[in-house]
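Structure, all two chains, one model.
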Amino acid sequence: MKITQKTVLVETQGVRIVRMSIVAPDIARKARAGQFVVLMVREEGERFPLTVASTDLQAGTLDVIAQEAGTSTRLLGAMEPGQSLYSIVGPLGHATEIRNYGKVVLVGGGVGIAEIYPVARAMKEAGNHVTTIIGARNKDLLILAKELGAASHELVVMSDDGSCGRQGFVTEALKELLVKTPPDLVYAVGPVPMMRAVAGVTGPFGVKTLLSLNPIMVDGTGMCGGCRVTVGGEVKFSCVDGPEFEASQVDWNELMMRNRTYVEQEQHMCRLHSMGSR
Amino acid sequence: MGKEPVRIKERDSQVRSGDFEEVVLGFSEEQALEEASRCIQCKDPKCVTGCPVGIDIKTFIGQITRKDYDGAYATIRAKSNFPSICGRVCPAEYQCRKACVFTKKNEPFASEKAINIHFLERFVGDHGARQGGRLAGPARSAGTPQQKVAVIGSGPAGLCCAGELAREGVRVVIFEALHKTGGVLRYGIPPFRLPRTILDAEIDQLQNLGVEIRTNTIVGKAKLIEELFAEGFSAVFLGLGAGTPSFLNIPGENLCNVYSANEFLTRVNLMSAHTFPQNHTPINVGEHIVVIGGGNTAMDAARVAIRLQKMRGIRLDTTISYRRTEVEMPARRLEIEHAKEEGVKFEFLVKPEAFTGDEKGFLKKLRSSRCALGEPDASGRRRPVVIPGSSFEVPCDTAIVAVGLGANKVLTSATPGLLTDKYGDVIVDSQTMETSIKGVFAGGDIVGGEGTVIEAMGMAKKAAAAILRYLARQAV
């Protein structure tokens, strides 16, 4: 559970994204693309999920990438190499079904780019033609462009202000691709509005679209039911039934509302944090 | 039948409902002696038949009357590993006390006059615990082969099986998925019913016996059963529990602030959400809390909820909504009494029909129907039948669904060849508790569904005995 390496990927415009290598040999050995870990930075901290971005079997480590959006991710970002997490368990959730689909398009937005990275590598290895579309507000907030360039046959970069790649949303690039040559699989991870938009874009084309959902979790092992989502009219536990689901079936309103269950507490923690009294 | 039952000391309901300290204070020595002296030492004691692990109740109560507390502890320990825990959480009124000669015939649970066996067990268990393991006896290490057994899960079944094996000199490693041990004893049962000092002391004793505990390890994910064998474990015990909460499957159940009892209790008991923001896990506590269900989990959830309301200065309004009547409630009678004393309200013969929320997706109301009791169902309890047109709505901004638990399939689905039934529970040989995989045994709620702590321990003991025989065969 010791942190061996820390890289600050982004630190600008109030956004901070860190990449941490954590010693967890048993988890690293088993983790496959699409799976996540649940970790606690401190004993008094929350349990929260993060996707396994990569593993190093030799070092017995796994990497997670987190945007410091709340208390727990901020505490993680404050950790330094040599320090240890209080707890880490995994690999959790189903792994992405990796096989030769043919043509695969991966879409990543924000820190979700970290989550498509292992999928891109695995899909390419499985013989797929991989096109990756990633997007950020601007060039300084874009992560893993180099890595994803190497892991894909084609990389399309989109930015809101045109400071890198093309100006526009990832969904615009996706739509163009769909019109040109519909892929066999679209796989997307990002903020809920982005994933919802992806679902809206691929729906009319009837292309199989998988999304990795990010609901609030506690144990991450199917015990609490906090991460329940409605998919195709059925209630699923994202931690054990997912985290990937068929895009067209997801009840997006419900997911967005449930993700705001503790928004007040989070603001309270932020105020405490900014007063330095945590 | 001369003497009246000795009333156990409890903390004042108005005080205790504002904190998480233990409610029942236990018998003093004088009280224990007086209560024990009520036992008429039946020639053919029925109480023993009511105990899932067959504790020699008559003998240990006799030993109490002679102030032979060490002896009483040894008598209990011969059958039960955790008397301090069982003395606190056993539903004695459905078990030993129901079988007591002082219980009137055809009662649904023990009469008040029945000997307070569980409180006496607790008295003896706490006496033993104060001796710091002196009375538990050392592991029988000499001459036994050093075979390793993996125990999956550190709840009642896993802890019990580990203890049984360790005492026979077997090396035991417990694998626990959560960051803390105890399973449902920690995440489910609140500290005011089972103080963490008691639980920790029992687990410390296991570690003193040489049991190794690996938390944060989810077998079925980080490790597979076959890998455990490959790593040199000779046998595996599955004490997985019943870890998946059931829901009502009614409209609005996924609104914010509709919790499973598991989630609500885990946030508080395991993650200390009641101390937010010192501990970072949040919990939402509404002004109108409804707990749906009639078991111990519902009582625990309601009593936690009312404590949270009190601690946060919210006017107490927590209601347990149950579709049958109080008599049919499966909860311990003591918990029902305690809940009432602490201000929890009860609505009987009510069936929830829909949750409704505001535009932001937060729960605001609960619509239910009234029921009447109809014919008995398979469980022998009279079935609730909805009265047409009786639908009514109440304000409700936090709901806790406590309507049972099913099997967690993480491990079973990752283990080819491990046979399960239609509920996902592991199928075992009822004599040996061995599963369809050679050398893999199981016990507790993952076998046959939700039960009590002591039932889980009973199965674990049976499995441990079979594992010892299995190891002996392997050794030759």
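The interface with chain B takes residues 1, 26-27, 30, 40, 44-47, 71-72, 86-92, 218-219, 221-226, 228-230, 235, 237, 240, 253-254, 257-258, 260-262, 265-266, 268-269, 272, 278 of chain A (CB under 8 Å).
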